[in-house]
Design goal:
The chain is α+β, with helices and mostly antiparallel strands. It contains ten helices and 15 strands. The termini are far apart.
Length: 328
C-alpha cells in the first residue's frame, strides 16, 4: 500500500482503487469494473499530448460523447484526478472540498494544512473544462472518462496551446528542471508564453484534415507564430470572424478566461493547455461553434493564495497574437 499526500487529507491508494468522483450531478458509473474496449473507436481528432510519438492516438471515444484518456495510476495521473475531483466532486457534509495536489517536493508523510479551493474559483472555471465522469477500466486498462469536446463537430478544427512562459515549478526536482527548462528554451514557450503541441484544420474543399506532427510546432519561432494561427483559421469562415466576432469568436472567450485567472487564487497550472476549437464545415461564424477549453492537469497544484501570473502573462501573449492575426 502506498500513502500519497496529494489532497487535503491522507488518501491511501491500494493498487487501482480510487473512489468514484461525481460529475455535474452524475456518478462515475462503471468505476472499477472491467469493460470491453473492442467496440470503442480510437479518437480520430486527438492532437498534442493525446498522440503517441508515431502520431497514433492514445485515447478513445464512445457514442455517448465521452472521451477516455489512459490513467496509469502514476503521480501525474493522480494529480489530474485530484484536480477534477476538486472541481466536480461535492464534499460530504462536514467535510472540506477536495483540493488539487499540494506543492511538496518529496513524498513527505506530513499532511498538508486543511484548505479548500475557493468556491467562486471552482464555479468560474467549470465553463472552460470538459465534463468529468470518473475512472473506468477497459480490459485491464484504466482510463479517466471525460466529455468528448469534439462530439458537437463534424469537422473539428483544433489547436493545442501548451501554456506558460515556464513549465518548471519551484519545487520540481533537478532532473525535471533541467529537462523542461531546456525544452522551454528550445521552443516558443519562453518567448511567446506557449508552444503549439497539436493542430488539426479542415480546409475548404478537402475531406482530410491538415494535421502536422508534433515536430511542426517545435519549428515555430516568435516571428512565425502568427502564421500558425493563420493556418488554423484557414476555413471558409474568415479568420477575423473566428477570432474577433463579439458574440461567437474565440477572443471574447479568452478574455473571459483571463478575467477568471485575475480573480482566482486557488490553483497554479503548469503544462496545461488551451484548446481552441471550431467547426471546419461551417459557412458562417454563427455555425462555427468556436470554443475555448482548458485541459491537461497533470501538473496542477494548490496556489496557496496567490495569482497564477505565469498563466496570466501567457494568456495575454496569446490574445495579443490572435488580435494581430484578426486585424490583418
Amino acid at each position: 500500500m502506498q500513502t500519497v499526500h496529494w489532497w487535503l487529507s491522507v488518501m491511501v491508494i491500494d493498487g487501482c482503487a480510487v473512489s468514484a468522483p461525481h460529475s455535474k450531478g452524475q456518478t462515475g458509473g462503471n468505476h472499477g469494473m472491467s469493460m470491453d474496449a473492442s467496440s470503442l473507436p480510437i479518437s480520430p481528432d486527438s492532437v498534442g499530448g493525446h498522440m503517441s510519438k508515431d502520431q497514433t492516438p492514445e485515447s478513445y471515444v464512445d457514442a455517448e460523447g465521452r472521451f477516455y484518456k489512459p490513467f496509469p495510476d502514476d503521480v501525474k495521473a493522480l494529480r489530474e484526478l485530484a484536480f477534477y475531483r476538486a472541481i466536480y466532486e461535492e464534499p460530504k457534509p462536514g467535510q472540506p472540498r477536495l483540493h488539487a495536489a499540494y506543492p511538496q517536493p518529496d513524498e513527505s508523510t506530513d499532511v498538508p494544512p486543511v484548505r479548500e479551493p475557493d468556491l467562486a474559483d471552482v464555479e468560474g472555471v467549470k465553463q472552460f473544462l470538459p465534463g468529468f465522469y470518473g475512472t473506468k477500466e477497459f480490459e485491464g486498462v484504466k482510463v479517466i472518462a471525460m466529455e468528448d469536446l469534439c462530439k458537437k463537430y463534424t469537422k473539428p478544427c483544433i489547436i493545442d496551446c501548451k501554456m506558460g512562459f515556464t513549465t518548471v515549478y519551484d519545487w520540481a526536482s533537478e532532473k525535471y528542471r533541467s529537462r523542461n527548462g531546456l525544452k522551454d528554451m528550445e521552443t516558443t514557450q519562453h518567448s511567446c508564453g506557449f508552444r503549439i503541441s497539436g493542430l488539426q484544420v479542415f480546409r475548404p474543399g478537402e475531406e482530410q484534415p491538415f494535421k502536422p506532427s508534433r515536430q511542426w510546432g517545435k519549428t515555430l519561432t516568435q516571428e512565425t507564430m502568427p502564421s500558425a494561427f493563420e493556418v488554423f483559421a484557414s476555413s471558409a469562415v474568415p479568420a477575423k470572424d473566428i477570432y474577433s466576432n463579439e458574440k461567437h469568436g474565440l477572443l471574447p472567450q479568452l478574455r473571459k478566461l483571463k478575467s477568471w485567472f485575475h480573480r482566482q487564487t486557488s490553483f497554479q497550472f503548469y503544462q496545461a493547455s488551451v484548446l481552441l476549437m471550431y467547426e471546419g464545415n461551417a459557412a458562417c461564424v454563427e455555425d462555427a461553434k468556436a470554443a475555448v477549453h482548458v485541459v491537461d492537469f497533470a501538473y496542477t497544484f494548490q496556489s496557496l493564495g496567490v495569482k497564477d501570473e505565469n498563466w496570466i502573462k501567457s494568456l495575454e501573449s496569446l490574445i495579443g497574437i490572435l488580435e494581430s492575426v484578426a486585424s490583418r
